[in-house]
Design goal:
Layout (H helix, E strand, L loop, with lengths): L11 E2 L2 E2 L1 E2 L6 H4 L4 E2 L3 E5 L6 H10 L7 E5 L4 H10 L8 E4 L4 H5 L16 H13 L3 E5 L1 H7 L3 H17 L3 E6 L8 H6 L2 E6 L6 E7 L9 E6 L2 E5 L17 E2 L4 H6 L4 E2 L3 E6 L5 H14 L4 E5 L4 H10 L5 H6 L2 E5 L7 H15 L3 E5 L1 H6 L8 H12 L4 E7 L20 E10 L2 E11 L9 E6 L2 E7 H4 L2 H4 L5
Helix pairs in contact: 13-15
C-alpha cells in the first residue's frame, strides 16, 4: 500500500483539504498553507538539525482544546522538557510517552521485546503506544524517531509492516502524525519516504541549514531548498523568494530621480527613471557610495521615501563623510523621508534579509532603495550559491513593484582594464553608471561615464570628475584632459 490514507480521504472537509499549522514560522508558507490534517509526515535529517524542536513546535501549534502526544525512543521526558525550555518552548500542554531504554536494560534485568512480525499489536511496545493513544485521544502525534524502531526490527519487511500498521492506526483515529528518521548512506529511509504522505528534508548546507518539502500528496509546495535557523527562540524558516512574474505597477519611468549635480543629470538626460535598476560600479574609493547617497538624499528632499542599506561602512563614519562633503542628509533624515541603516551581513541569511526588506518597503511605501554594496550583500549568501540568484530576486522583486533600485558594486579593474563587474550582474541593470581610475600624466584621474540606459538616451562621453564639497564635480571630456603617459590618450 502506497500511503496510510483511505479511499474516503479523512483529510478533507466538505471536499476541501483541511490544513493544520506546522508551528514553525515560514514553514506553512512552504507547505502552501500548512500540513494536511489526518495524514502522516516524515521529517528526515541528520543529528543536530532541529528535528525534535520542529516536532515540539508542531505539537504546540495545536488549538487549546486539542490533545497532543510525543512518543520518544531516544530521550526520557525530563530531558526532552529541559531541551525544549532552552529554545523557549513550554511543553506543559504535551503528553509524553518515553520508550527510551531504562538503566535496567543495560544491567541485564530487563530486555526489550521487538514487534512480532505476525501480529504487531501484541508486542509490549506497541501495546504501550495503543494504550496511550486510546487514553489521551490526541489530534497530533510526534514520533522521534522511527530509525530506532528500524534497528529493533528483524528485517526490512517487518519494519515496513510495523510502520504501515502504526500510521494507519493513528490516521484512522483522526491523528495528524509527524515522525522522524536519521538517514545515511548506511541506513537509507527510502521506504519511509514511500509510505509517508509528505516528506520534509533537513540538510546542514555549507553555511546555513536548509529545509525542502520533496513530497506533499495532493498539494503543491513552494520549491526549495529554503534557509532556516535554529536558535534560542526555536526554528524559523525563510521561504525562498520569487520575484513577481510581471510588473505590479503602471507608469514605470514616469518619475526621474535626480543626482543633484546638474552635469551628471545632463549626462543621464534628466535622471534615473522610477522602477529601474541602476548599477553604480567602479574600483574602491572612487565615489560610488557618494553618488548613490546624493541620489537618495535628493529623492527624499523631493518628497519621495528612500532607504539606504549600508553593508560596509560604519554608520557614523558614513554620515560624517557625507556631511563633510556638504551633502544635505540631516534634513531628509529628520523628515524620515530618508532612512540609512547599517547591516551586519553575517547576522543575516540572504532570504531572511530579503524577506525583512520587502516587508518594510511595503509597510513604509519606499520609492528608492540603495544596496551599498553588492559585496556586503554577497557575504550573507551561502558559499555554494553565487550572488546572481538572490540579487536577481531582490532587484526584480523591488523594480516590479515600481521601486527604483541602486546597486553599488566594487570592481577591481584599473587603468585601461575596463570592467563593469566581476560578478556578471550587469544583465540586471536598466542603467549602468561606471567610474574609473586612469593615468593622467603623473597623477590618477577619475572618470565617470554612462554605459547603458534603457528608457532614454544618454551622453556617451566619459568625463573627468572629482569628489568635492557639495558632492562631486563633473568636468571636461576625458579626451581633453588625458594626455599623460608619454602623450598616450585613453583609448576607451
Amino acid at each position: 500500500m502506497d500511503s496510510v490514507t483511505r479511499d474516503a480521504d479523512p483529510s478533507t472537509v466538505a471536499g476541501e483539504l483541511e490544513r493544520v499549522s506546522s508551528g514553525v514560522p515560514g514553514l506553512d508558507q512552504v507547505l502552501d498553507g500548512g500540513l494536511i490534517a489526518r495524514r502522516g509526515y516524515l521529517l528526515r535529517g541528520g543529528p543536530g538539525l532541529g528535528k525534535t524542536t520542529i516536532g515540539l513546535s508542531f505539537l504546540l501549534a495545536a488549538e487549546e482544546e486539542e490533545r497532543t502526544l510525543f512518543i520518544g525512543f531516544q530521550e526520557p521526558e525530563a530531558e526532552l522538557q529541559a531541551n525544549a525550555a532552552r529554545v523557549g518552548l513550554d511543553t506543559r500542554r504535551i503528553e509524553f510517552l518515553s520508550l527510551a531504554p531504562s538503566e535496567e536494560f543495560f544491567t541485564g534485568a530487563e530486555t526489550y521485546d521487538v514487534f512480532a512480525a505476525s501480529d504487531v499489536e501484541q508486542a509490549p511496545m506497541i501495546d504501550t503506544v495503543v494504550e496511550a493513544v486510546e487514553r489521551i485521544q490526541p489530534e497530533r502525534v510526534f514520533i522521534d524517531s522511527l530509525t530506532h524502531l528500524r534497528l529493533m526490527s528483524a528485517d526490512r519487511y517487518q519494519f515496513r509492516q510495523q510502520v504501515v500498521s502504526l500510521l494507519r492506526f493513528l490516521v484512522d483515529r483522526g491523528v495528524t502524525a509527524m515522525f522522524t528518521s536519521e538517514f545515511s548512506a548506511e541506513s537509507p529511509d527510502d521506504d519511509l519516504q514511500f509510505l509517508a504522505d509528505g516528506v520534509i528534508t533537513l540538510d546542514p548546507g555549507i553555511s546555513s541549514p536548509t529545509v525542502e518539502v520533496s513530497k506533499l500528496r495532493g498539494s503543491r509546495t513552494r520549491r526549495g531548498p529554503h534557509q532556516y535557523r535554529v536558535d534560542e527562540s526555536g526554528v524559523e524558516v525563510f521561504p525562498r523568494i520569487l520575484p513577481p512574474m510581471r510588473r505590479l505597477t503602471n507608469g514605470a519611468g514616469s518619475v526621474q530621480f535626480r543626482s543633484g549635480n546638474g552635469d551628471l543629470d545632463e549626462m543621464l538626460h534628466g535622471g534615473l527613471e522610477s522602477g529601474t535598476i541602476t548599477l553604480i560600479t567602479g574600483p574602491s574609493g572612487v565615489g560610488k557610495s557618494t553618488v548613490a547617497a546624493m541620489i537618495a538624499a535628493v529623492a527624499a528632499r523631493d518628497g519621495h521615501r528612500a532607504s539606504v542599506f549600508q553593508f560596509e561602512e560604519e554608520l557614523d563614519g558614513y554620515l560624517r563623510r557625507l556631511r563633510n562633503l556638504e551633502i544635505d542628509v540631516d534634513g531628509p533624515l529628520e523628515s524620515e523621508n530618508l532612512r540609512v541603516e547599517q547591516i551586519e551581513p553575517l547576522r543575516y541569511l540572504a532570504e531572511e534579509f530579503m524577506a525583512d526588506l520587502l516587508q518594510r518597503i511595503e509597510e513604509e511605501n519606499i520609492d528608492l532603495v540603495v544596496i551599498d554594496s553588492v559585496t556586503g550583500f554577497d557575504m550573507a549568501l551561502n558559499p555554494d550559491e553565487a550572488v546572481h540568484r538572490p540579487l536577481h530576486t531582490l532587484a526584480k522583486s523591488l523594480s516590479r513593484r515600481g521601486i527604483t533600485v541602486l546597486l553599488v558594486n566594487e570592481n577591481h579593474a584599473f587603468g585601461e582594464d575596463f570592467q563593469i563587474s566581476s560578478r556578471d550582474i550587469s544583465h540586471l541593470a536598466d542603467n549602468v553608471i561606471f567610474f574609473r581610475y586612469v593615468h593622467g600624466g603623473d597623477t590618477l584621474e577619475k572618470l565617470i561615464g554612462i554605459l547603458k540606459k534603457r528608457m532614454s538616451n544618454f551622453e556617451r562621453v566619459q568625463r573627468r570628475f572629482e569628489i568635492a564639497p557639495g558632492g562631486f564635480r563633473v568636468g571636461q571630456p576625458a579626451s581633453a584632459v588625458l594626455q599623460g603617459d608619454g602623450g598616450r590618450k585613453d583609448k576607451t
